[in-house]
Structures are given as C-alpha cells and as structure tokens.
Amino acid sequence: MPHYGDYQNEIYGLGLRGIVPKVPVNAALLEERAIAAMPPYLRDYVQGGCGDEHTQRSNSTAFQHWGMVPRMMVDASERDLSIDLFGLRLPSPIFMSPIGVTGLCTPDGHGDMHAARASAATGVPMMVSTLANDPLEEVAKAVGDTPAMFQLYTPRDKDLAESLVRRAEAAGYKAIVVTLDTWVTGWRPRDLNAGNFPQLRGHVLTNYFRDPVFRKLLGKPVAENLAEAVGLWARLFGKVLTWDDMAWLKSITRLPIVLKGICHPDDARRAVDAGADGIFCSNHGGRQANGGIAAIDMLADVVQAAGDVPVLFDSGVRSGTDVVKALALGARAVGIGRPFAYGLVLDGADGAAHVLKCILAEADLLMAVNGYPTLGAVRAAGVKRV
Fold first, then answer.
1. What is the domain extent for residue 283?
2. So which residues are the catalytic ones?
3. CATH no. for residue 80?
4. In terms of Cα–Cα distance, which of 142, 134, 127 is closest to 104?
C-alpha cells in the first residue's frame, strides 16, 4: 500500500531529471523564502505575534524538549495514520488551522479557494476561518469530498452569529469551531508600528458582507458604503463568551461544537461538562497573549482532563516530527497553520499541498524508523521530557 513517506521518492525521482522542489521541504527555508516573497503588510500580519513574541517563539522551540524513544525489531513496513473524529474516518491526523488572512496569501486575493483546493488534493481537512475573502459556501464546494470545519468568531449580534452557523451547516461543514480568545485583539507591535489591520481596510470580511443578517443591519448596499460596512463589522466583532453561552451555542446547530483556546485542565473539564464535542488546545500561535506557556507543554494536562472528548491541537507546529510528538501527548488531530500559508504565498494551491504532503511524509517516515506502525503505538510509546 502507498504511504505518505513515498512522497520523498517522487521528489528524488524528479531530481534525477534535474527538477528540484519549487517550494522548500523544510520549515526554516520555507519560512525564509515566503517572508522574502510577501509584501510588508502581509508579512507583518502573518509573522507577527503578541508583545515581544516570546510565547510565539516558545510554541515552536518547546517541541525540542520533548523526545521520542525508538523501538527496534518492530515491523513498521505498513503504517496507518488514519483517525476517527466526529464520526468521520479521516486518512491522516492533520488539518489546516484557520488563518484570518489566508485570502491575502495569493496574488489573486483568493487564497481561501487555493487552500480549499490544497485540501481537496491532499485529503487534509480545512478549518475555514470566518475571516475570508471568499464566501464560506464557495470554499465548502472547493474542498470537494474532503471534510471541512467552520471556525466561528462569534459576533455580538446573536442573529448574525446564528446566521453564520446556519450557513456553515447548510454548506456541509462537519463541525463548528468556536474561538474563545479573540473577542479583542492582542497587542501586536508589528501591525501597530505599520498602522495596519487588514480587516479595517475591508479585507477578509466577505462572510459578513454576504450575510443576509449583516446586510439587513447595515440597511444599504455594502459596495456603495464600504466604510460604513467596515465600521459595523468592527462594532459587531467579538462577543465575550462565558460558560452560560454553551447552551445557546448547542441550541443553534446539530453540528459538533469545538471550543478553541482551551489550555487549562479545569477549563477542559468544564467544557466537557457543558457539552463540548471537542476541545482545541491552542494559544492562537502566540498571537493573542504573550508571557504564556508553550501550547505543547499544556497539551497532556488538557488531554487527561478531557477524558473521552477528542482534543485538537495547534500552535508552533512546523514539521511532521512536531505532529508525531503532539499525537504522542494525546492530541487526536494536529493543526498546521503558518506553514501552509507560506506554501500558498510561494505557489498557491500546489504550494500548500506540497507543504502538507511534506509534513505527512516526515511524520510517516518517523513512525517507520522509530517502530511505530500505528498512532496507537505512537501514544503507547509517548514522549520524554529532555
């Protein structure tokens, strides 16, 4: 049977014909080339974190103090990386985390559609952000048979929130992922020094501008009143959610509700008690709050507290090795953020698909070499603090 690791054979085969990858296969060179290719406003937003970016850096470097012990004389010639999530059988344990400026990552301004095509090409589910240049319905069509989840920035207006959720459900999304830590924007010096916040310039607001409730609230055509539409969005963005809101969230959809931003085990337990169908351990990649603990260092406690409720994870994941370590710590599925955005910048849908294939290939080959034929074996082996 084919394995994700076979992708390296394709690369080596092309190399024999003098063809090398257009998009780098490793995180450091990928980031370097993407940064060089981005316009400053996009570079600062994608690269930037909160405060002095210590937490953002720690998210990535903290993976280095978790190590795996290989097991020999194990037949790992056949590997199975598939998972069960929300009643779905998925071929791999990774997904594309939501990035609010995905739409700006390609020159045509339709990076959301490019990302969706990468999802369709790889079978890697896409978690589609509320903030997009393309309507959620069109993105859902572009992913084809690959499942997608919709990430909700909950508006202050409940009718608008319910409309977004209803649209996502009607479009075929498989879960609603509610972001908890972004009812206000964290202190981001790179954007502040440039005086740039893309949404206030009318970018990535298509899901609002196309929404019937938003248009009714605006009371006039969006295209002819862009400044007023942006102003309305700014006033409506960011409902402060409390545990009392869980009953309402559960009442407005039949889809699984995933709570994104859970990092404390007590919050994980409370989420389970409140009926959350999934928990997303994430500190927003260090973009929302500085001075915190690396997300990977909080994952095991959240997993333990969550019990049988699946825990998704992102923040600082840059490689297939990072993915396997997060799985070993108990994550059911692992989100890829900036790396796929860098792939979009360098080569659109093909670039993003290449990045996802490289991450899966590295994860698969690590499992092969370390004697872990299944994800169950990965979790049984665990990781050690080094």
1. 4-205+236-385
2. 284
3. 3.20.20.70
4. 134
